[in-house]
UniProtKB/TrEMBL annotation:
Role of this protein: Catalyzes the reduction of dTDP-6-deoxy-L-lyxo-4-hexulose to yield dTDP-L-rhamnose.
UniProt name for this protein: dTDP-4-dehydrorhamnose reductase
InterPro entries (alphabetical): dTDP_dehydrorham_reduct, NAD(P)-bd_dom_sf, RmlD-like-bd
Keywords: NADP, Oxidoreductase
Cited NCBIfam families: rmlD
Keyword Transferase: no
């Protein structure tokens, strides 16, 4: 039996872990979000981990608003860096392991083959910079049995994400411009949650390992949007545009593919193809919709009923 603390439990990944947790009844879970445990509160973090005798911390808490982070750099830095340091220090003191989640946005997007976990990092925006600072803090403190899992383009039926944005805009508009020259891999938070719960609760490594977990395959945001509209049965026409035609406060990496070889070798896992997982999520959204909107006939109709 492991005593597990999940931070940021109301976010996409935290919610998926929460939903799956009943299938892992041999463990005890503490689900906390900022109201129950603010990870920026050093004393509260130390006290929680010490008094609850936490064995494993799954840090799903983060500042994830990529564009807003350009203006709120200090807050992003506090949550994505300083708080990770507090969690790592508390983990080290209490012999707990820390499973920390990071991002493809630590890379600069200029590569042309998938980034290995030890490839040179060089974030192009504030969010990526603060996430990299968090990784570095964790590595230097090095609590035993801890890992960093970098993932990308996460979506879920919970929280806010690209899939739910596309479903909403797809209902509201006849056409939509979406960037075709940024490529990466969408990741269904439920798949990542399952991977963590199945594989990461009993790690024994002495030195922090960094792994990459995304769904299989590759696409651009444009391809992703086309597939979302198609699977949801929406008529909205998706038009491909270059990054230059969609100015945003934060730059995004053009190329975000990450090499999963070491994760697959070490954990012997099969990872779902992105389109199969997207279908599962859209089906789930449809199911949630039907229970919320009695006259709903399509998945797309329903997204606002589950939007935060
Ligand atoms: N979303 C994505 O596309 C990707 C995410 N990641 C990483 O995966 C991890 C999980 O992401 P995801 O589930 O999407 O994130 P979400 O933004 O959905 O969830 C993060 C949660 O953390 C909470 N939180 C914020 N500040 C604090 C705090 N001080 N103390 C405790 N909780 C806090 C948020 O609350 P509130 O909403 O109130 O701020 C929210 O509930 C993060 O580390 C993220 O960087 C990596 C790649 C892609
Ligand atoms: C809404 C919209 C977005 N886009 C583009 C902008 C951007 O390049 C891309 C994705 O936009 P979003 O703002 O939804 O996604 P973004 O917030 O950049 O997503 C990132 O979030 C963080 C937390 C991560 O860690 C990353 O892995 C990644 O998932 O799509 C369009 O081209 N058209 C549109 O209508």
């Amino acid at each position: 039996m492991k005593n597990i603390l999940v931070t940021g439990a109301k976010g996409q990944l935290g919610s998926e872990i929460q939903e799956l947790s009943s299938q892992y009844a041999d463990h005890y879970f503490h689900f906390t979000d900022v109201a129950e445990l603010d990870i920026c509160d050093k004393e509260a973090v130390h006290q929680f981990i010490r008094t609850k005798k936490v064995d494993v911390i799954i840090n799903c808490a983060a500042y994830t608003a990529v564009d807003k982070a350009e203006a709120e750099a200090e807050l992003a830095e506090k949550i994505n860096h300083t708080a990770v340091k507090y969690l790592a220090e508390a983990a080290k003191e209490n012999n707990s392991s820390l499973i920390h989640i990071s991002t493809d946005y630590v890379f600069n997007g200029k590569a042309f083959q998938p980034y290995s976990p030890d490839y040179l990092t060089d974030p192009v925006n504030r969010y990526g910079k603060t996430k990299l600072q968090g990784e570095e803090a964790l590595k230097s403190i090095n609590p035993a049995g801890s890992i960093i899992i970098r993932t990308s383009w996460v979506y879920s039926s919970y929280g806010n994400n690209f899939v739910k944005t596309m479903l909403r805009l797809g209902e509201e508009r006849e056409s939509l411009n979406v960037i075709y020259d940024q490529v990466g891999v969408p990741t269904y938070a439920q798949d990542l949650a399952r991977f963590i719960l199945d594989n990461c609760l009993k790690l024994k490594n002495e030195k922090i390992e960094t792994y990459h977990y995304t769904n299989e395959g590759v696409c651009s945001w444009y391809d992703f949007a086309i597939e979302i509209m198609d699977m949801a049965g929406l008529d909205c026409k998706v038009m491909p545009i270059p990054t230059t035609a969609y100015p945003t406060p934060a730059k995004r990496p053009y190329y975000s593919l990450m090499d999963k070889t070491t994760l697959k070798d070490d954990f012997r896992v099969e990872i779902p193809y992105w389109k199969d997982s997207l279908k599962n999520c859209i089906t789930q959204l449809g199911g949630q919709a039907e229970s919320n909107v009695s006259s709903s006939t399509s998945v797309a109709l329903s997204t606002s009923s589950v939007e935060n």
